[in-house]
Write a structure and sequence with these properties.
Chain B: One of its GO terms (molecular function) is transmembrane transporter activity. The complex is a heterodimer of chains A (about 250) and B (about 290). With about 250 residues, chain A is an alpha/beta fold. Chain A contains nine helices and twelve strands. Chain A has a six-stranded mixed β-sheet with strand order 8-9-10-3-11-12, with helices on both faces. In chain A, strands 2-1-4-5 form a four-stranded antiparallel β-sheet, covered by helices on one side. In chain A, helix 3 crosses helix 4, helix 3 packs parallel to helix 5 and helix 4 packs across helix 5. Classes of the chains: A alpha/beta (about 250), B mainly alpha (about 290). At the A-B interface, helix 2, strand 8, helix 3 and helix 5 of A face helix 9 and helix 10 of B. Bound molecules: adenosine-5'-triphosphate and magnesium ion.
C-alpha cells in the first residue's frame, strides 16, 4: 500500500529524512517508533504530501504521491490532483485539529459533502453511523470545546473514516490524552485493525504496538534502523540503537 | 446559620465624585434646555424634513456599499498578501501601503478630479466620458471603499493568522482544496477576530462618509450645510445631523454585539455571558 524508497526530506539545511525505505502491505498495521526528532511525523506528512520530498520515491497504492510519470519524466501534479490523492488517505493528528466552529457531526460530514459531493442526507446518515461506531452517538451536536480529549480524538478518527480512505495515518494519536482516555482511542484503532484497515501508526504505546502491529519500524535520525514483527523487534532487537531506545521506553 | 450583619466600608470619595457629576449634568441639561439659541423647535421641524432624510439615505447607501466593497476587496488583498506567490504578496503589501498611507480626504479629492487625468475611460467594450461616469457619488464610493479595503485587509489578515495552522492542515489532509479550506474552515473561525474591529470600522465609516461633503456629494452633512447656507440656522441643523449619526451608531453597535455572539460559536462558549469590565475594586485587596 505504501512503498517508500530512498525518501529524502530537508528543511533548509537540516536533513530530516535521509533515505527512508519502507513498505506497508495492504491490510497490515505498521507501527513507527523512535526517539523524539527522528523524523516520524515528517515521514507521515510526506506520505499524504503535506510535505514535499526532495529525493526518492513515495507511492501509495501504486500511485506516486504528488507526481505522475509521462514519457519517462516526472510531472508535478496540479493542486486539485494532489487533493484527490489526499482524499483517499485518512490522517489523525496528535492534537486532533477538529474544526472548532463545527459540531461533531458537521466535522464528520464536511469532507464527504464538499469533496466527495455526497448528498446531505447520505452524508448525515453515514456520519451518524460512524460517530456511533466510535461510541459517540450522543455527542452529534457537541462542539469540540465541549468534548474531552479522548472524545475529540474519536471524532477525528470518524472524520477521517468518513472519506472511506484506503489507508489511515496516525501521528501519536494518544500522546495528548489523559491516561484514562488513552484506552478508548486505542480500542477504536484496534477495532479498525480487526476490520482489515491498512494503517501506519506513530506511537509511543509499546504495549499497543506489540498487540496490534504486524510490523514495527524503528527510526532514528532520519533513517530506518530496523523493522520486523513486534515480538522479534521488541524482544530481540538486532541493532544496539534499538536496544538502547527500548531500554529507555519500556 | 449565623447572619452576617456587618457595617459596609465607607467610601466618601465615591460619594463626592458622584455628587460632582450629578451637579455638572444638571447644569448642562438646564443650560441646553433654556438657552433659546439652540432653537429646539427648528431641530424638531428639520429632523424629518425631506432634504435631511434624502441626505441620510445617501449617507446610509455610501456606508453600506463602501463597507461591503471594502470587506470583499479587503479579503482579496489579505489573501494576496499571504500568498506564496511573491509578486501577489508584494502587490497586496503595496496596496495597503498606498491606500493606508494617504488621507482618505485626499483620496476622495483625487477620485473627484480623475477626469483631469483620464478624460475618457475605456474598459474593453465600455467607453465613457470620465466626467459622466465618475459622478460625485461614484467618486465618493471609490474613495471610501478603496481606502477601507486597505484597513480591512489588515484586519482580515490578523483574523486568518489567528486560526491555528492545524485547522488548515486537517482540511487539506481531508482533500479540501485551498479555496474550500479558506472559505469553509479558516474564514469562519477568523470571523471571531474580524467581526469586532469591522463593527468599529462600520461605525467609523458612517462618520467618515461626512467627508464627501467636500466633493459636493449630498450626504447628511452636505444637505444640512446646503440648508443652513440659506437659513443661517447652523446650530440646530448640526444638532439634527448629530442626532441622526448617534441614532445610527447606536443601532450599529447593537448589530455588532449580535454578530459577535454568532461568530463566537464553538469557541469561547463561556465568554458568551461576559459582563462589561469594571476597574478592579482596589479596596478588596486591602
Ligand atoms: N516545519 C519544519 N521546519 C523546520 N524543521 C522542522 C519542521 N518540522 C520538523 N522539523 C525538524 O525535523 C526533525 C524531525 O521532526 P519530526 O517532527 O518529524 O520528529 P518526530 O520523530 O515526529 O518527533 P516527536 O516524537 O517529538 O514527535 C526535528 O529536528 C524537527 O525540529
Ligand atoms: Mg512527531
Amino acid at each position: 500500500m505504501i512503498v517508500a524508497t530512498g525518501v529524502h526530506k530537508r528543511y533548509g539545511t537540516l536533513d530530516v529524512l535521509k533515505g527512508i525505505d519502507l513498505t506497508v502491505q495492504r491490510g497490515e498495521v505498521t507501527c513507527l517508533i523512535g526517539p523524539s526528532g527522528s523524523g516520524k511525523s515528517t515521514f507521515l506528512r510526506c506520505v499524504n504530501r503535506l510535505e514535499r520530498i526532495q529525493g526518492g520515491r513515495l507511492a501509495v497504492d501504486g500511485e506516486l504521491m504528488g507526481y505522475k510519470t509521462k514519457r519517462g519524466r516526472l510531472h508535478e501534479l496540479r493542486e486539485d490532483e494532489i487533493a484527490a490523492q489526499r482524499a483517499q488517505i485518512g490522517m489523525v493528528f496528535q492534537h486532533f485539529h477538529l474544526f472548532a466552529h463545527m459540531t461533531a457531526l458537521e466535522n464528520v460530514v464536511e469532507a464527504p459533502l464538499r469533496v466527495r459531493k455526497v448528498k446531505r442526507e447520505d452524508a448525515v446518515a453515514q456520519g451518524t453511523a460512524l460517530l456511533a461506531r466510535v461510541g459517540l452517538e450522543d455527542k452529534l451536536d457537541a462542539y469540540p470545546s465541549q468534548l474531552s480529549g479522548g472524545q475529540q480524538q474519536r471524532v477525528a478518527i470518524a472524520r477521517a473514516l468518513a472519506m472511506e480512505p484506503k489507508l489511515m495515518l496516525f501521528d501519536e494519536p494518544t500522546s495528548a490524552l489523559d491516561p484514562e482516555t488513552v484506552g478508548e482511542v486505542l480500542d477504536v484503532i484496534r477495532d479498525l485493525a480487526a476490520d482489515g484497515m491498512t494503517m501506519l501508526v506513530v506511537t509511543h504505546e509499546m504495549g499497543f504496538a506489540r498487540e496490534v502491529a504486524d510490523t514495527v519500524v524503528f527510526m532514528d535520525e532520519g533513517r530506518v534502523i530496523e523493522s520486523g514483527p513486534p515480538d522479534e523487534l521488541l524482544e530481540r532487537p538486532a541493532h544496539p540503537r534499538t536496544r538502547e531506545f527500548l531500554a529507555r521506553v519500556l | 446559620m449565623q447572619p452576617i450583619d456587618a457595617v459596609p466600608v465607607r467610601r466618601p470619595g465615591r460619594w463626592i465624585a458622584a455628587l460632582a457629576v450629578a451637579l455638572l449634568a444638571a447644569a448642562v441639561v438646564r443650560s441646553v434646555a433654556t438657552n433659546p439659541r439652540f432653537q429646539w423647535d427648528v431641530v424638531g421641524e428639520m429632523l424629518f424634513s425631506d432634504r435631511i432624510l434624502h441626505g441620510l439615505v445617501l449617507t446610509l447607501e455610501l456606508t453600506v456599499i463602501a463597507m461591503v466593497a471594502g470587506v470583499a476587496l479587503g479579503i482579496l488583498v489579505a489573501v494576496a498578501r499571504m500568498s506564496p506567490n511573491k509578486l501577489l504578496a508584494g502587490a497586496g503589501a503595496f496596496y495597503v501601503w498606498l491606500f493606508r498611507g494617504t488621507p482618505v480626504l485626499v483620496q476622495l479629492l483625487f477620485w473627484n478630479f480623475i477626469a483631469a487625468l483620464y478624460p475618457t475611460i475605456e474598459l474593453g467594450p465600455i467607453h465613457a466620458d470620465a466626467n459622466t461616469l465618475i459622478t460625485p457619488f461614484m467618486a465618493s464610493l471609490l474613495g471610501l471603499a478603496l481606502n477601507q479595503a486597505a484597513y480591512m485587509a489588515e484586519i482580515v489578515r490578523a483574523g486568518i493568522l489567528s486560526v491555528p495552522e492545524g485547522q488548515a492542515e486537517a482540511a487539506s489532509a481531508l482533500g479540501l482544496s485551498r479555496a474550500q479550506t479558506l472559505r469553509r474552515i479558516v474564514l469562519p473561525q477568523a470571523m471571531r477576530v474580524i467581526v469586532p474591529p469591522t463593527g468599529n470600522e462600520t461605525i467609523s465609516m458612517l462618520k467618515t462618509t461626512s467627508l464627501v461633503s467636500v466633493i459636493a456629494s449630498s450626504d447628511l452633512l452636505y444637505s444640512a450645510q446646503l440648508i443652513y447656507s440659506q437659513s443661517f440656522q447652523q446650530i440646530p441643523l448640526l444638532i439634527v445631523v448629530c442626532i441622526w449619526y448617534l441614532a445610527i451608531t447606536t443601532l450599529l453597535s447593537l448589530g455588532q454585539s449580535m454578530l459577535e455572539r454568532r461568530y463566537g460559536r464553538g469557541v469561547a462558549r463561556a465568554r458568551r455571558e461576559t459582563k462589561p469590565m469594571r476597574l478592579p475594586n482596589l479596596a478588596v485587596a486591602r
